[in-house]
Amino acid sequence: MEDILLTIHKLRTSFQIHGKFYPAVDGISLTIQKNEVLAIVGESGCGKSALALSIMGLHPSDRTLVEGIIEFQGRNLLQLPIAELNQIRGKRLAMIFQDPMTALHPLMIVGRQIEEPMNVHLTLSTKEKKHRTLQLLERVGIQNNEQVYQQYPHELSGGMRQRVLIAMALACDPVLLIADEPTTALDVTIQAQILELMKDLQRQSQAGILLITHDLGVVAEMADRVAVMYAGEIVELAPVRELFYNPKHPYTRSLLQSLPSATGQKQKLHVIEGIVPAIEHLKRNGCRFASRIPWISNELHEGEPILHEIAADHFVRCRCHEHFYLPAERMGDESNASITAT
Amino acid sequence: MLVFIVRRTLLMIPQLLLLSILIFFLAKQMPGDAVTGAFMGKPNVSAEQMEKIREQHGLNDPWIVQYGRWIGDAVRGDFGQSFVHKQPVTQLLAGRIENTIWLSVATLVVTYLIAIPLGMIAGRWTGSWADQFIVTYNYVSFATPVFVFALLMLYVFGFVLNWFPSGGSVDIRVEEGTAEYVWDKLKHLVLPVLSGSLLLTYSTVQYLRNEIIETKMKDFVKTARAKGVSENVVYHRHILRHSILPIAAFLGYEITGLIAGSVFIETIFSYPGLGRLFIDSIMTRDFTVVTALVLISGAAVIVGTMLSDIILRMVDPRIRLG
Predict the structure, then answer these.
(1) Domain presence at residue A94
(2) Which of the residues in chain B have pLDDT under 70?
(3) Residue A167 to chain B, least CA–CA distance (Å)
(4) Which residues cross the membrane (chain B) (predicted)?
(5) Domain boundaries of chain B, sorted by first residue
(6) Which residue in B221, B124, B119, B121 sits closest to A107, CA to CA?
(7) Can you give the pLDDT at residue A152?
(8) Contacts of A104 in chain B (CB under 8 A)
(9) Cross-chain Cβ contact A105/B224 below 8 Å
(10) Which of A16, A243, A289, B184 is the most exposed place for a label (fewest CB within 10 A)?
């Protein structure tokens, strides 16, 4: 298809721990199309940020091994020499970072930082650059752009800095934006504003967005399609409505069950039993979620779980979902590991 | 920025006042005085005559009168007469201050010229053979006493190879004010400056190396890479700018250290600067010269700290005067 921006094929990103390499991203395949927002959800440590950094080529090469194919507009980013990669990133492929407090250079005025990708990728005069930067600041909703241009990051609030980071990512009109938890570090009211802004900008620019988040609310708000990640793998991939109304994989269902509800009476908050296994101790054969749903017997899992297309564009890993039930659905069973919450 | 500099300068006044009082009392507490220093052991001067001289020079006045007289003159640039050299202290210091400034500025410049590239290489390519070499050089230079190294330099380059003059600050035969004069001064500086700066680099190299290693991991460096900025620019523009902060902060202190502390270098290369004068004056109890020198080096420390603050403020916009 012509509209495909990014194809990831069997990506495996391994980190070196005590001299051995352990994959944090383990065989991920994905595509993102033009004008599409693909959300990657999962809890901390599931490999979603490692995935984002792999696409941008930001892992330190001495301690990380990135294998597979990341094809962006027809070229495999993993095989490009750094000079050619530098012609792509910042221009057609840009990233919005997680923490606006640390992602900006503390000793450079904001204007210069936004202009930097233009210095690298575009041939503009000083005046044109400044004009463009002021326009960008305006586009991301900064009214007093002339003033902010001259300011240092420490003089701005968190929300303003996140806007600056977005302006920076948009500096050269990218076709694909990678947003790594763009609202995690912000407080809730600002989160809503930033999400609204990103949605607007996406509609205007028709860019594709790979949105990495652990916040299902953000997913519901922004995404067209959702990939749920667990322990380095995609366990479920579906259009956003399908995923919320018809979740299949035990992990997805547990996640959705764990959302506190604003309506209805006080009830126990569902908690998924156990923790994500550490990367060194993860059992890599069999269903990786099995250890956290011990009431599902082993025979119900696949030996080598693969993604099954169970409906149009709806993929689920492992057959165990067919027999899965949430402990809460079993009446009167108090033996599950729920924790009382109000 | 201007307000900052003015406020910071005003802050120096009480510091200087306190310093001057302290110095005055310390000097007074030293055993002996200028009179004993000048006439001790000379059989033709009796105790009564010495007492008379003390009375004449006001050495028996109450401390507050003496201090007032001293500080009032000092502010006007008059540090009194040297009892040993029999000439005004100000005159005695003038030429030597100039020499010391030449020596310290040159040492500082050469130190940074060597240390900053080394620190950058070691920080960027940590663990490489170049890094290991630089770290080894650092340990060796840190452990080498300056008087041993300076003597070695003097012996090899000044005496055996005879490449550079082995003493003094300028040849007496060249005329002052000519290009040749400046050239000759620089030639005289080579050995003292190299001996000093080759051993002084360690702190700058070590600081810069550590800072770069730490800064490399920062988020804003990732941001820079994500913009498509080349690796060289990432290091020169983003990482170095952040890593240079502590070095900029130490610049002021380094200056003071050099002004006050090149005693070994100046002695070994018979370089007529303040350091040597200081030692000589203490030996001969030349009270007026010693106090003037201590006051100058103390003031240099205060000025150095101020310089550090201003420099740091210039490179780091986050600094505010507390």
Answers:
(1) yes
(2) 32-43, 172, 260-261, 320-322
(3) 12
(4) 101-122, 134-157, 244-269, 289-312
(5) 92-315
(6) B221
(7) 92
(8) 220, 223
(9) yes
(10) A16
CA–CA distance, A166 with B293 (Å, rounded to integer): 58
- At residue A210, what is the residue type? L
**In this complex, is the C-beta atom of B225 within 8 Å of any C-beta atom belonging to chain A?**
yes
Going from the first residue of chain A to its last (342 residues), give the mean pLDDT of each consecutive group of 10, the final group possibly shorter: 84 90 91 92 87 91 90 90 91 90 91 92 91 91 91 90 91 91 82 86 89 90 92 92 91 85 68 80 83 81 85 88 74 45 38
Q: Token pair for residue B128?
A: 């490489």
Indicate if A94 and A218 belong to the same structural domain: yes
Burial label for B75, CB within 10 Å (0-12, 13-18, 19+), is exposed
Looking at beta carbons, which residues of chain A come within 8 Å of B230?
Answer: 83, 86, 120
User: Does A340 fall in a domain?
Assistant: no
| Chain A residues touching B242 at Cβ < 8 A | 105-107
Judge whether A231 lies within some domain.
Answer: no
C-beta atoms surrounding A18 within 10 Å: 6
**Chain A residues near residue B318 by CB distance under 8 angstroms:** 106, 152, 154
Query: Cβ–Cβ of B316/A88 closer than 8 Å?
Result: no
Say whether both A121 and A265 belong to one domain: no
Which of A93, A105, A155 is best to mutate for the B interface (most B CBs within 10 A)? Answer: A105
What is the number of structural domains in chain A? Answer: 2
Give me the pLDDT at residue A333, please: 45
| A104/A162 same-domain check | yes
The DSSP line for B69-129 is: HHHHHHHTT---B-TTT-SBHHHHHHHHHHHHHHHHHHHHHHHHHHHHHHHHHHHHTTTSH
Please report residues of B whose CB lies closer than 8 A to that of A168.
223, 227
- The fold of B92-315 is MetI-like fold (1.10.3720)
Q: Would residue A318 count as lying in a domain?
A: yes
What pLDDT score does A256 carry?
A: 86
Q: How far is A60 from chain B (nearest CA, A)?
A: 10
Question: Do A41 and A165 share a domain, yes or no?
Answer: yes
> Given this model, what pLDDT does residue A335 score?
45
Is the ipTM here above 0.90? no
Task: Please indicate, yes or no, whether residues A182 and A77 belong to a single structural domain of this protein.
Answer: yes
CATH number at residue A144: 3.40.50.300
Q: Give yes or no: residues A138 and A37 share one domain.
A: yes
At A238, list the tokens: 């579906």
Could you list the residue range(s) of the whole structural domain that residue A302 is in? Answer: 247-329
CA-to-CA dists, residue A202 to A106, B133, B303, angstroms: 28, 52, 55
pLDDT reported for residue A328 = 65
Residue A200 near residue A166, CB atoms below 8 Å? no
Domain boundary among A223, A258, A284: A223
Instruction: Tell me if B228 and A102 make a contact (CB, 8 A cut-off).
Output: no
